[in-house]
Structure formats: C-alpha cells, structure tokens
C-alpha cells in the first residue's frame, strides 16, 4: 500500500508538467513570464490558469517569444520580484543571450525546463541536447529522474537560487516524465511556503532609497573580476545545494544530494547517467545483483555545478564505468558528461577505472532494460579484461549500417 | 591627479556582485582635466535663459534659485566640464555670455 | 521486470480518448493503493489516426521509464484498428486482448491469429450509447479491463471515478451517473474465456 513519506503529504496522480505547475502554484512567485512550447507547454498553461482563476497572486506576462520571456523574467527579478519561467528545446535556444545575462547579473530566477531534442531535424521528444548546450551559461542545473524529483527540485531550487544568487533550471525528460502520470507526494501549501521563505533581495532596482546601476559596461578593468565572481559563486553553490537538500530531508523526509549513489558501495561496474534512464537502470541493477554481479549506478542530479571531486572519489574503486550521455556534443571527441567525468578522474589522479562513453536516446529514441543490460554486460567484460575498453563513442539503439 | 581612474582597482572579493555600480558615481569621477578649451561665463551679459543648462551633456552648468525664487545660472562646474563648447554655441547670438578660451593649466 | 508489475497497452484513434482512458485507469487504480504510470505515445496528433497509450501498475514504486513492449493486457477501443495495427505485438501466449466489438471471441481470435482464451469481448460502444448517450467507449473499457485483470477492486475504482467526475461535471449529474453505469456494465458484461 502506498503511503506518504511526509505525514502531512498527499499522494496524487500527476504528470511531470502538472507537478511542476503545482510547485509553482505553491511557490507563488511574484512574476512568471513565459512563452509555452512543447513538451513544457502545460507547465505555464496550468500556471496561467491559476493566475486567471485568482488562485495565485502572481503576475503572468504572456510574451511573444522566449527571448522576451527571459528578458521579462530578468527585468522582474532585477526589480526585486521572485520571478520564474518555463521552456524547452528551441525555446531555451532562443533565450540564449539572455541566459548569460541572467547569470551575469546574478539574478535568482528559477526555470522549469523540459528536456527536448533540438532542431534540425525537428523533433519534440526527450533528449538533453537543449540544456547540455546551456551547461556553461552560469545557471545551476538540476535534473529530475521522475515527477517526484521534479516537484521536490522545484521547491529546493527557489532557495538554492536565492542563496547562491544564481539562476537555476530544473529539468525533466520530455514526454518520458513531462507527460507520464505517476504517483507523486505533494506537501501542504503552507509547509512549502515556509520552506522556501519570503524573498528578501539585498539589492533591487525598485528600492528607490538605494539606487544603483545594473548591467553597466565592464571592460578590461573589471569584466574579468565579475566573471571570476560568477565562477566562484558556482563553485560555492555546491555547499548551498547540499545544505538546502539536508534541510529538505529534515522537513519533508526525502533525501537529495548532488548525485545519487545506487548500489555503489561494492560496485565493480557502474553506469553514470542523468534523468529518467536512471530509474530504468535501477531495474537492471536489481536483476544483476540477484545474479551476484556487482553493478552500480551514479545518477547525476546537479550537473552544474559539477561535483567533480566527490564523484571521482566515488568512482575510484570501480573497475569499468559507462558514462551515458543523452546528447552528443558534436565536438569530434566525446559527449559532455563523459568529458566531465574523465576530467574529474584525471584531475584526482585516478587512472584505474576503464571509462567508456555511450550516447543514447536522442530525439526520444527508446532506451530500455535490454539496452542497459547489454551495457553492463560489456562493462563486465571490460572489467574482467576479456575485452578492451573501446575508444570514441558507442551509440545505443541507432541504425548505422 | 584628481582622476579616480588612478585609484586602486577593487578585487573580485570586494566588488558588489552582479555588475552593480552604485548610483552617483559620475559625480565622483573628475573629468574636468580632460579640457583643452574652457567656457568662460560673463555674469553681467547672461539673461538666464538656461539654454546652456539644457544642452550641457555633463550637467556642468550650475543653477540655483535667486531671491525671487527664479532659477538662475550661478556658474560652471569645472570639475566635470569637458570643454565641449556646446554651451557657448547654444548661448544666444545677441547675448554671448559664454565664450570658449584656451585652457590654461 | 517485476513479476507483479502489470503492463497495459491501449489502442485507439486520435480523439477517442485512449490517453484519457489510460489516465483515468491509472488514477482509479492508484485509489486502490497501488503505484501507477500512465503515458501516451506521442506522434503527430491527428483525429482518427491510430494512437496508443500505456499503463503500469505495481505494488512497489515504479522506477522504470522505458516504453512497454510486452504488455499483459491490450485494450482495443476501436475494432477497425485490428485491420491496420499490429495490436497483438509482444503479448505472447498469455497476454489478453480486450476488444470493443459486437463480434464473438472466436471470430476475433481467428482474425488476430491468437488463442481464443486470450480474447475478451465487450460491446463498449453499445454500452456507451445506452448509458452515456454517445459512442465514447473508453470509460466502459476501463470497467472491462478491471474485470479482466481481476486483482483490482471495482467498487474502489467506481468510487474514485465518481469523485473525479463530480469535480468536472458537478452541474451535469446525468453525465456522472452515465459514466459510472457504463463502467459497471462493461465490468459485468465483458466475456472472458479464463
């Protein structure tokens, strides 16, 4: 029988988009400016309905493009409002220059993002190419395995963003989570509101008693110092994210960290993955464990800031690792997550694990337990020395020849 | 030198975060020593039309209310005047209360 | 795949409510104390085009997020789909197919080339016309599916559906009654060969 973890929690059947909108209702930001796009449409559609029905006091700004959505959100945040938006794929692409401005101005905007492939060819389904492209834009990136995590991450993101003074995006895998109805535990409005607290910006443009200039030109003399501040803030935000997660666990009972370790204590072979595929991999791991195969998983929750030192330590004793990327960098070498993991291991002086790179699921391509079992099978062979680790990228479930 | 370009630059740890610049900093920034020509004001000729005050790009025309509470010109802020000459150009032909002279340092 | 996990595939035509049926089914089953998933297969959205939606039901939390390829239950909202879609794909020798049809199980088994014990028939369109007044087969098929699965409590399903409909149709009590009656009738009338 299903039971809530938090005694006052309520179990509901909702899709990823519905719970993200529900979290936004409970957060009740001052301003939401958005331009709906598949598969994130419902998030702002449902939220705008809350506004129209008078359920929330938020101001909803219906803009004419995502560039304007991010611009209006930036303006609202700079003015001193708690501001949010939501988008996906091409929408995030159109926000591009404004993403960097949001982080450069250190505005704690929270964005609900639904991962979707990017054009061309046009595709509406889930992969992480969109946010992977924005990985170095100075935004904190929190990925969700399922709807529950999406809901919990949205609530935590508000506090993280405001404490770190960094914009934060929370993502779900398009359609796979955004349109999948699951059992989600929601918490009472007042408890969520209490957890996130009231937003009290130190500086805001509508504070007429303490006027200042925001976003002025910064040349050779100061630009570098400001960019250093931003990079340093991103490094420092790891502590903030962990603190907020600890408080969240203390309050609502669900444990979160920069990444989730699943059966990693004695793991000899492991997959590193982001998002919904982690859940599918857990099913495979259970089966492998029953057969005595020491398989494990690291699911990255917070990809930016990247927990390099911690993750390297946790992977140090694993014999063979498969890093699974749901995006391809077209870099001519490796996909993003693989590059980060191998850099983390190298920098930590850990050279024993054999690390291979898989790219999977582009444009919503199916990834199931059989595909994942085959990857673990390959890892077992690499770990035992029966097979040499391959170089380059192995593509999962794609027709090549 | 008065110019605060020569002040020690702040390190990242002491800068306000997020590209914030405090208000009123233009007043602290002395640009008067950029002049090669300076406007000279003849108080007796001046009709206080304030055409110069409206046109000055550096807010360097000083004004104040007189005894009849009418706003009148009171002088030139040489700390901020860059000597562009717009005030002299805008001063009406028949009045010529502002003229440009070579800057003597 | 956990042995206890139930997987369902719905076949319908765009506009017939295959997605809604999967969502309604999931919500109703959740009310009986189980973990659920409901998700549609998204393609170009065209009225009348063949569409699919899916359900998972389990006593344990469901972490798997792949597609469903080997469902134990297939629900067919529109019998004409049997001519153009591989509705029996992945069901093996034990999967059940629940068809909205006026034909007999024998006739359908012959057409689909499966054993007749795998076929369950209910005339959901007829039931819908008599109870709801429109040919909306998705709600009655929900009742038929609950019956065929056998381990779910129909009364709890009806109770939850009533609550859901009361929110949506509070000014149209006849709609609520009609839908509930259609679920109950399909539950009673579906012919199984088990």
Structure, briefly:
The complex is a heterotrimer of chains A (401), B (105) and C (194). Chain A is α/β, with parallel strands linked by helices and 401 residues long. Chain A has 13 helices and 16 strands.
Biggest interface: A-C, 27 and 24 residues
What is the number of beta strands of chain C?
Answer: 6
Structural class of chain B: alpha+beta
**Going by CATH, what is the homologous superfamily of chain C?**
Pyruvate-ferredoxin oxidoreductase, PFOR, domain III
Helix content of chain C: 25-40%
Strand count, sense and barrel status of the largest sheet of chain C are: 6 strands, mixed
**How many beta-strand runs of chain B?**
5
Query: How would you name the oligomeric state of the polypeptide chains in this document?
Result: heterotrimer
CATH-assigned fold name of chain B:
Alpha-Beta Plaits
Can you tell me the CATH architecture of chain B? 2-Layer Sandwich
Distance between the termini of chain C: 24 Å
> What is the count of distinct domains of chain B?
1
For the termini of chain B, the CA-CA separation is 13 Å
User: What sequence of helices (H) and strands (E) makes up the elements of chain C?
Assistant: EHEEEEHEHHHH
Put simply, the count of helices of chain C is 6
CATH class category name of chain B: Alpha Beta
Q: Mind describing the biggest β-sheet of chain B?
A: 2 strands, antiparallel
Average pLDDT of chain B, rounded to a whole number, is 90
Secondary structure category of chain C: alpha/beta
Shape field of chain C: globular
Description of the molecule:
- The complex is a heterotrimer of chains A (401), B (105) and C (194).
- By secondary structure, chain A is an alpha/beta fold.
- Chain A has 2 domains: 10-252, Rossmann fold; 259-395, Rossmann fold (3-Layer(aba) Sandwich).
- Chain A has helices spanning 16-27, 41-52, 66-79, 89-94, 96-104, 129-133, 147-164, 189-196, 223-252, 277-290, 308-315, 336-347, 369-384; strands spanning 10-14, 31-34, 59-62, 83-88, 110-115, 140-143, 168-173, 181-186, 212-214, 259-262, 269-273, 295-300, 302-304, 320-325, 354-359, 393-395.
- A 7-stranded mixed beta sheet of chain A has the order 3-2-4-5-7-6-13, sandwiched between helices. A 6-stranded mixed beta sheet of chain A has the order 10-12-11-14-15-16, with helices on both faces.
- In chain A, 54% of the residues are buried.
- Chain B has 3 helices and 5 strands.
- Chain B has a single domain (4-102), classed as Alpha-Beta Plaits, CATH 3.30.70.
- In chain B, a hairpin with a 5-residue loop joins strand 3 (61-65) and strand 4 (71-76).
- Chain C has a single domain (6-189), classed as Pyruvate-ferredoxin oxidoreductase, PFOR, domain III (Pyruvate-ferredoxin Oxidoreductase, domain 3), CATH 3.40.920.
- Chain C is 38% helix and 19% strand.
- Chain C has 6 helices and 6 strands, in the order E-H-E-E-E-E-H-E-H-H-H-H.
- In chain C, strands 2-3-1-4-5-6 form a 6-stranded mixed beta sheet, sandwiched between helices.
- Chains A and B meet through strand 9 and helix 9 of A and strand 1 of B.
- Strand 8 of chain A pairs antiparallel with strand 2 of chain C.
